[in-house]
Amino acid sequence: MNEPDTVELLQRLADTVEVGQAPVERIAADGRRRERERRRWQIAGAAVAVSILVATGTFIARGNAISAPTGEPADVTPPSTPPPPAATFAVPNVKGLSENVAVQVLEDLGFVVQLNDEWTCDPSDPCPADLGGSHIVVSQDPAPGTRQPAGAVVTVRVEPVVPDLSQEDIRAAQLFAAFARDETGYGPFDTPVGLGVQGSFVKAVSPTSPAGEWEVPPPAHSGISGTLSALRIIKQYDRNLQVTSDRQVVCATKPATGQPELTGGGHLVSIQPGGSPACLQWFSVDLYVNDVSQVVGVDVRVGTP
Amino acid sequence: MGRDDDFSEYVGARWRTLVRAAVLLGCSRHDAEDAVQTALARCFVAWSRVSRADNRDAYVYRTLVNTLRDSRRRHWWREQPARSIPDVSRRDDTTHIDLADAVERALDELTIDQRAVVVLRYFGHLTEQETATTLAIPVGTVKSRLSRALAVLSDNEHLTDQPEGGQP
Q1: Chain B residue numbers touching A196 (CB-CB < 8 A)
Q2: For the residues of A227-242, what is the DSSP string, one character each?
C-alpha cells in the first residue's frame, strides 16, 4: 500500500458519504452563543480577581492612568484594521493519483481543475477523446503546498498508465469504440468475431453484420430484461471510458475467464467506465485481441449482485 | 471581508470535506455533521486566530480531532450503539461488499491514533509537520504511525482479498 493508493482508497470511501448543505447560519449562531458565554465567564473571572486583589490590599486605583494627555486632543479615530486575508488553501499533492481521483480531491477542496492531456490523440486518427487508457497525474501547477484561494485553477498533466497494455492494444480498443459509435464503419476485427456474456460463448458474428446481430441474451438471474450489446453499451455510455488490461475492482467476486471459443487465444483488453462506478453501474466490454491487434472475441460483463 | 463573511465562505467551501473527514476518522455518518458543526462553532469564536493561521485547514482539523476526542471521553459511559448492528446507511455485508466497505473495515482495524494520522495526511492533505502539530505529536511519531498504518492496510484481508472485478 503506497501513498497514492491510500489517497485513492480514502477518496473512494469519502465519496460514498452523502453530505447535505452546510448549515452556516446555525453554526455561526452557535459560535456567537459560545462567544457570549465565554465573555460572561471572562467578566465573572475578572470580577473575582479584582475582589481578591481588593481583599488582599494589592489593588491600587490609578484614577488618571487612562486619561488622554492634556493639551492635545485625544485621537478618537479608530485604528485602521487591515482586512483579513482572503481564505487560501494549500494545494494538495495529487501527483501519482489517477485522473478521476485527483479531480475529485481538488474539486472537493474548492479548486477548479484544468486537465492537460494533449497526449491522448493524434488528430488524424479516429480516436475518441474520452478513451485513452487509465490516466495518472504526472505534474501539477501550482506546486503542492502552494496556498491558493478557493476557485483558483490548478492545472494537472495526466499521462496514460497502461503497464500491461501496448499502444496497439489501446489502439484496438479505440478503434472498436469508434466502430461502436458509428464513427468509422470499420473495426479492428478478425472474422468471425465471437460474442459472449459473462465469459460464456454465445455465437459468432461477422463484423459487417447488422447491429442487431450483436445482441446477446443477458446473464441468468441478472434481473436484466432485454438483450445486451457491446456496441450499444459503448455507444450509449456518454461519460468517460478507460482501457485496462484487467477489470476494475467493483463487484464482489472474481469472474470466470472467458471460454476458449470466445477468447480465441487472444489476450484481454477491457473497456470500462472511468471513475468509481457502483457495482450496478459497472460494465466491462472485454475484447480478446490476438497478436496482430485484431479483436477475435467480445464479451459483455455487467455487475449483477 | 468581515469575520462572518469570511467564516461563511470557509464553511461553504469546506463543509463537505470536513464531514467526510469526520467519517473517515471513525465518526458514524449520523454523528459526523454534529461533530463538524461543533468544531466549526468553536473555530468561529477564535476566527481571528484561524484567519492568521498558516494553514486554516490544519487549525480546523485540530479542532475537529479535539472535538471527537472530547466526544469520546464524554460519552464513554453512555449506552453506545453496537457497531455490529448496521444502521440504515450501512450496507448489507452479504450482498454489497464493495471497495468502500472494504476500506471502511480496513480503517476500523487501525488504532485511533494511526487512523487520525492516515486521514489527516492522505485525506486532509496536511504536511507531516502540520499533521504533527494538529495531533500534538512529534513529526517522527507521525512518520512511524504512517508507516505502521500503511503496513496494516497492506496486510488487511478486506483490501487484499478484493477481487479483480466482475459479478458475484
Answers
A1: none
A2: -EEHHHHHHH--S-EE
Least confident of A28-32, A48-52, A158-162: A48-52
Residue A85, amino acid: P
Which residues, at least 6 apart from A194, have a Cβ–Cβ distance to it below 8 Å?
A: A201, A203, A204, A261, A262, A263, A264, A288, A296, A297, A298
B105/A contact by beta carbon, under 8 A = no
**What 3-state DSSP class applies to B65?**
helix
Assign A11 to helix, strand or coil: helix
For A82, the grid coordinates are: 487591515
* Grid cell in block for residue A295: 479483436
Q: Best of B33, B34, B57, B98 to disrupt the A interface by mutation (most A CBs within 10 Å)?
A: B98
Host H or E run for residue A157: strand A153-160
Residues of B in contact with A13 (CB under 8 A): 23-24, 100, 103-104, 107
pLDDT of residue A304: 64
Candidates A15, A27, A88; nearest CB to B40? A27
Using a CB-CB cut-off of 8 Å, the residues of chain A touching B9 are: 87, 150
Higher-pLDDT residue of B80 and B99 is B99
How would you list the strands of the sheet with A189-197, edge to edge? A200-205, A189-197, A295-302, A283-289, A267-273, A241-244
Q: Name every residue whose Cβ is closer than 8 Å to that of residue B141 and which is 6 or more positions away in sequence.
A: B132
**pLDDT at A59 (0 to 100):** 47
Range with the lowest mean pLDDT among A20-29, A57-66, A232-241? A57-66
